[in-house]
Design a protein that fits this description.
about 260 residues, 9 helices, alpha+beta, single chain, Aminopeptidase, binds coenzyme A
């Protein structure tokens, strides 16, 4: 059953999206295959090498070198943004009609395939998202266009439960989360669909679902120089309330949170 209209809560597999628990079970089952479970057990260093090879294979040596330099030494500032889920944000216009549903493992693999026809930067973005999934973050959502069924957008939700569950070096990556807070991570609009309001509109759909699940506040971290992302979050009703400073040195990173 196809769903038309960006405010739709029914996905194109005929399930109601507001039954999030059932969906989460389905996506976890779809993602945690034996192969994934093996990947999750890999030593973080081995895992980084594996993703480095994948980056060379999909993006080429230039893309690999660009990101390797950032792992050797870089300093980045992230803005921490918040949205009060109890306040209504009004209608967010969107130029694409899409059903939105929890992603299965095949959706992530397909996204990676699509990255080959996107810019070199997109290859890194999507490989990083595959890594995120394989590290145990299964609460991923994908939007597909209503007419052609092309993937047009993906994003993850992270809660305090996820942060404690996942031990492989991600804890310092997130701002501190309370039980009633949910973090938006790894938003990505496929290049063909950018600038049409897909990201703020999809975040709005998921924030209403999160509100119904009892979450009161939605957070996200965006690099201070990612103006497109900051603009999209602003349209989705987010405001800046803090900063995280990250220093990467020789493949490890340290983050310091400033603000609440
Ligand atoms: C950031 C991102 C998710 C925004 O998604 P989106 O669906 O294009 O969001 P919007 O349509 O609301 O566009 C946001 C801003 O992007 C800019 N934009 C406009 N057209 C664009 C285009 N063709 N291509 C890229 N960006 C465009 C505009 O500044 C726009 O704001 P405006 O419409 O008010 O002028 C998307 O650019 C993306 O996936 N980037 C790469 C991954 C990334 O940076 N993720 C963020 C991690 S925090």
């Amino acid at each position: 059953m196809a769903c038309r209209g960006q405010k739709c809560f029914v996905n194109n597999r005929g399930h109601r999206l507001d039954n999030l628990d059932r969906f989460r079970d389905e996506s976890v089952r779809g993602l945690a295959t034996k192969r994934q479970a093996r990947v999750m057990k890999l030593n973080p260093a081995v895992s980084k090498v594996r993703y480095g090879i994948l980056l060379i294979k999909n993006g080429g040596l230039r893309v690999f070198w660009h990101h390797l330099k950032r792992q050797i030494y870089s300093r980045i500032t992230f803005w921490v943004l918040e949205r009060n889920l109890q306040a209504d944000n009004g209608h967010i216009p969107c130029g694409v009609q899409y059903p939105l549903h929890p992603a299965l493992w095949e959706d992530i693999e397909e996204a990676l395939q699509v990255s080959k026809s996107e810019s070199p930067e997109a290859v890194y973005d999507l490989i990083q998202r595959k890594w995120f999934c394989e590290s145990g973050f299964y609460d991923c959502y994908i939007a597909r266009t209503a007419d052609t069924n092309d993937p047009c957008y993906i994003q993850w939700l992270v809660t305090s439960a996820n942060v404690h569950m996942v031990s492989r070096g991600f804890r310092c990556r997130f701002p501190r989360l309370r039980e009633d807070e949910v973090l938006v991570e790894n938003v990505y609009t496929f290049e063909k669909y950018r600038g049409k309001g897909v990201m703020p509109s999809a975040i709005d759909v998921l924030s209403r679902l999160a509100r119904r699940k009892g979450f009161k506040r939605m957070l996200t971290c965006v690099r201070e120089d990612n103006t497109y992302s900051l603009r999209g979050f602003e349209k989705a009703g987010f405001k800046k309330f803090g900063e995280i400073r990250e220093t990467r040195f020789l493949f490890s990173s340290r983050r310091k949170q400033l603000g609440n």
